[in-house]
Give the backbone structure.
Amino acid sequence: MANLIIVESPFKINTIKGYLGSNYKVTASVGHVRDLPKSTLGIDIDNNFEAHYINIRGKGDVIRQLKKEAKAANKVFLATDPDREGEAISWHLATALGIDPSKACRITFNELTKSAVKDAVKHPRPVDMDLVNSQQTRRILDRIVGYKLSPYLWKTVKSGLSAGRVQSVATRIIVEREREIEAFIPEEYWTVDAMLRKESGESFLARYYGENGKKSSLACKADADAVLSDIKGKPVVATTVRKSKKHRMPAPPFTTSTMQQEASKKLNFQSARIMKVAQELYEGINIGHENGGTHGLITYMRTDSLRISDEAQNAAFAYIEEKYGESYRPAKPHAFKANSTNTQDAHEAIRPTDVRIEPASIKKYLTPDQFKLYKLIWERFVASSMESAVMNTVNAEFACGTHSFRATGYTVEFPGFLALYEESADDSKKNQKEQEFVTNLPPLSEGEKLDAAEINEVQHFTEPPARFTEASLIKFFEEMGIGRPSTYTPIISTILQRGYVKREGKSLKPTNLGELTTKIMEENFPKIMDYEFTARMESDLDGIEAGSESMLKVLDDFYSEFKVWLEDAFASIEKYEVELAPEETDIICDKCGARMIVKNGRYGKFAACPNYPECKNTKQLGKDGKEAEPKEKPVPVEGMKCELCGGDVVLRTGKFGEFYACVNYPKCKFTKQKTKDTGITCPDCGGKVVMRFGGKRRSAFYSCENYPTCQFSSWMLPTAEKCPKCGKTMFVNKSKNRLVCGDKSCGYVGAELPASADITEENE
């Protein structure tokens, strides 16, 4: 039988199949197949922290099928993702399928391209147990902390809460920022800007700097008024004019962290959305036969390395020289410095797998999200390989009596990478009191006299630090060494789902629950909440991966301390009298005037009056936590009447899509699914094929009008054409833009449909 390749995601199957041909069968484990049990700790702490793994509920059929296929295969290759988690999944698969992990059964590829996949198959290796043990250690640490600490929170706060080794630290970061904001006292300051005019009539802005060339600030209006009074009507002289050239290097190619930060700023994507789209680009997309069919468009998207392969670098240089000219290609690659001291170098930076595949050339094959993110990654990578920009800068200082003003300007002499891409501004610099004042400057010379044509004073107040966004929080994680690229998004998702943090626009704000649990954790488990301790644990995990640290020693060192903290905390638990303050809303009860609070019910969160049971008023909440807009009454469908009672008919949306229903429902039970005639004859019974709006997959599908008497249904639109190979009905496959045979065993694929082909929309 053919060789078997097992991947994590079923979306990779067709991509890899297309590269390897009929001698290989590709199937998917759909993530993990084994894990620790949910009902118990699953760790034998007294027996060297032995983990008791079980098959994940619901994965029985998958494991049985994999066993069957592995038994019949000549060779089995475990091709899960190229990171700790992927290595652990391969080890679990090997254990479940009876494969010796010390044999050459593991293959990895950093990109889903034909050359990378074929090369991986030629060079299998044993499962890397250092990587596996690193993942196991993280899993065991998180399980111990979660299962041992959560009961403490149940007793001190409320049942159902959970604590986590990293999620508690992440919540603390957001809580501490909120404390800074609440404690912040604004400081007043003033700026004075003078519109200076040359004799030639050219004018520009200069900002007050200080006295006699020394920097000083204007703390109040009296200070600003004094400056205005001193300089009004007096000449201004250019005392210093410094000209220089500055070379501005491009930003490096993306890591997971920088990709999430930039996509958040430029595309307004949340981190989970960014990683989902990046996964799709990595796993492979059909970009048309002219571009090579199904193709992995980017390299592996969980990385903190800035390294680029020589092959990719040379391809980028060749593209830049051809597209922009020789002057835009640097003599040698830029040397980028990593932001973190804990950078791993297992993978390259995130880059396009083929720089020649320009975003615009494949836009029609991508979803809007895929196109935006691919374009961002492609432009960042190409720009990182381009020549630096050259700026002509001018720094000028002006004197008016004893008062000094300054102005800075620049012009672009050579755009370099700026011809393609410019990195977004750092959010952390937006609220700084002292910002660089840049303006357009005309030619200036020292000793030149100017007139102060207009002088303006403006009052300002210092602003508190901004709340974290997902992007700035991920940047903080990276700088502090908390978590790793693969864990950033799950950490944020967890603290949001658990209700410790909520979103306000793009900002992350702690809830009352998050603030209270953080306070209790800081008082009783300060080491768990310590940034340096958490970062050191990450370094220990890296050491296990590198083979320089022992899994057992790391676990034993941690637990010997943790056990003492836990005992002390439970011993003093009675001293706590905790009352969780209700979360208030901006909604005022229209019956008694009280400010309504958030409650959890069977169908999620809702606003309730705090004076219950005297006042039982409630209101529905939207996803943003605000009062939901009342649902509009459905409009009667013109030309339709109920077939049972003669009343009006309205269009509703249910579990299986759109349908018509009597306006008197539930008294009158008339319903009829919405359909649209396609003009196609049913291949089974000769009736009409109609489009039905909805289904379990929430998208339109096609079926016979006589359904369910006639069982014909399909996600693809049937046609009047017959397969030239087997004579059966041909269908329109929109993703391939081709006609395909309805019989999978035949597999005939027709020519590409013309752009003008009349294809009924599948999602109207």
Notes: The two ends are 44 Å apart (CA to CA). The first strand starts at residue 3 and ends at 7. The CA atoms of residues 131 and 548 lie 12 Å apart.
